[in-house]
Design a protein that fits this description.
- The protein has about 140 residues and is an alpha+beta fold.
- The chain has two domains: about 1-85, Arc Repressor Mutant, subunit A, CATH 1.10.10; about 85-140, 2-Layer Sandwich (Dna Ligase, domain 1), CATH 3.30.1490.
- It contains six helices and six strands, in the order ααβααββββαβα.
Amino acid sequence: MIDQVKTVTDALTAEGYRLTAARQAIVETLVAGGGHCSADELVDSVHKQMPGVGRMTVYRTLDLLCQLGLARPVYQGSGAAHFVLMRSGHHHHLICSVCGQIIEFEDCVLEQIYAEMIGNRFEFQVQGHLLEFHGQCRDCRNT
C-alpha cells in the first residue's frame, strides 16, 4: 500500500503539482480503499481523517488524478462514477452479470497488442487501458 501511495504522489510532484496534506490524505484514502470508490465515498472517508478537507478539493484531486492517467472513472450500472487507480497504466475487471461481483486481475498481455496493432492501425499512441470482461462467476453458474 505504501508503495502505491508513493507511486501516485511521486507522479503528482513529477508533473509539478504540490503534494498538499489534503492531496496526500486523498491518495492514501483511495489506495486504502483498494483503489475503487465513488467520489462521495471518498469524500466521506477523507473527512474521517481530515475533517477540514472540502468536497471540492476531493473532486478536483480526482479530476487531476484522471488528467494525469493515474485514475479513471468507471460506470458499472450504478449511475455514479467509481474511480479506479490505474496501476502501471492499466486496470482489469471480471464483472459477474448476475451478482455484480467484481474480480480484479493484473495479468496483461494486451498492452503490447494495443500499442502495436490498434495504435498503429488508428495512428494512436496508447498510454493506458481499462479492460472489463462481463460474464458469470463460478458461484452464479453453479446455482
